[in-house]
Amino acid sequence: MRTLTGIQPSGALHIGNYFGAIKQMLDLQKSDELFLFIPNLHALTTLKDAEVLRNNTLDAAATLLSLGVEPDKTIFWVQSDVKEVIELYWILSAYTPMGLLERAHGYKDKIAKGILPNHALFSYPVLMAADILLYSANRVPVGKDQIQHVEITRDIAIKFNNEHGDIFTVPEAKTEEDIALIPGIDGAKMSKSYGNTIDIFLSEKELKNRVGKIVTDSTPMEEPKDPYTCNVFALAKLFLDKNAQDELAERYKKGGEGHGHFKAYLKELIWDYFAVHREKRAYYDNHRDEIIDILRDGARRAREIALPMIEKVRELVGIYR
Ligand code: ADP
Ligand code: TRP
């Protein structure tokens, strides 16, 4: 099974991203051939500060490597390092009906948020189709908001295949149905856009501070508390096995401990869980050259797969060489 996905270089990742998406994706390294890239060309549709885009790209690479991308198993690269994707994007554009893109929710949502409707924003799904089809991916893990883009990819692949034979693999989107939404410090879905996140790489002091801000009810210390309506418990659960979850629930039900105790416990859980990743992160921050070498090697391996595909496509559509 060839699995491919792109993770936007859009700043610090939070615990919701990790438990809702990244962890499952990295687990696939055990069973699948994983292709993972940083879609910096897609990011350009909304991010117009060169310095920020450049930094975010390396930052995303450092984050993903620290969280467990294994470059000897996974092909890991920056999108713009394999230029053939841009050529395929253009060729696919000639096979993409306008109506298909006009129906895209992603585009409409971004415009509604006040982002300038530039052409790249509109043709974003075609570049995404090129990302996927260039490497003959079978499976594409994405968040729910990206399912339509994978469907557009399927439509484009089928249209092209109908004219030229069975060239492209028609991919399937893979979403995590059973992952519960992870609450933020205010109890709403944890999200960058709500400012309620707990980021993965905080200093110990920042983490303590952030956990301290989690909204809890005002049950007095001595009284029993309901773990199942408590935001602190909902987050602590992510780090505990079933037995430890039951033990914590008992502490809630018994009374005698205040939310401050549970928050201190949660802070330790988060701090300890990410200790190894934090060390790796510090290492990569001091060895930026190593990140660049890994990405370059990933791009070389990705290109080995991309080249025969683009050559076949050129030939089929009649691009002169
Ligand atoms: P944000 O809402 O912070 O902008 P993204 O939309 O960039 O996050 O999400 C990236 C990935 O992380 C998606 O696959 C999404 O489903 C997952 N994710 C984000 N927030 C949560 C959450 N609170 N609970 C579970 N999964 C989440
Ligand atoms: N559009 C995706 C997102 O915003 C990122 C992405 C770009 C992608 N190209 C892709 C995801 C190809 C999967 C496959 O999250």
Structural account:
This protein is mainly alpha-helical. It folds into two domains: 2-180 and 278-317, HUPs (Rossmann fold, 3-Layer(aba) Sandwich), CATH 3.40.50.620; 202-273, Tyrosyl-Transfer RNA Synthetase (Orthogonal Bundle). The chain contains 14 helices and five strands. The protein has helices spanning 15-27, 40-43, 50-67, 84-93, 98-102, 105-112, 119-134, 147-164, 204-212, 231-236, 242-254, 259-273, 275-286, 288-317, and strands at 2-6, 33-38, 75-78, 139-141, 172-174. A three-stranded parallel sheet has the order 1-2-3. Strands 4-5 form a two-stranded parallel sheet. The two termini are 33 Å apart. Bound molecules: adenosine-5'-diphosphate (ADP) and tryptophan.
Structural class by SSE content: mainly alpha
CATH topology of the largest domain: Rossmann fold
Average pLDDT rating = 95
The ligands found in this model are: adenosine-5'-diphosphate, tryptophan
At CATH's second level, what is the architecture of the largest domain? 3-Layer(aba) Sandwich
Compressed to H and E, one letter per element, the order equals EHEHHEHHHHEHEHHHHHH
Instruction: Kindly provide the name of the CATH class of the largest domain.
Output: Alpha Beta
Rg from C-alpha positions? 22 Å
Fraction in beta strands? 5-15%
The end-to-end span amounts to 33 Å
Helix content: 55-70%
What is the count of DSSP helices, taking H or I runs of 4+ residues?
A: 14
Low-confidence stretches: none
General form: elongated
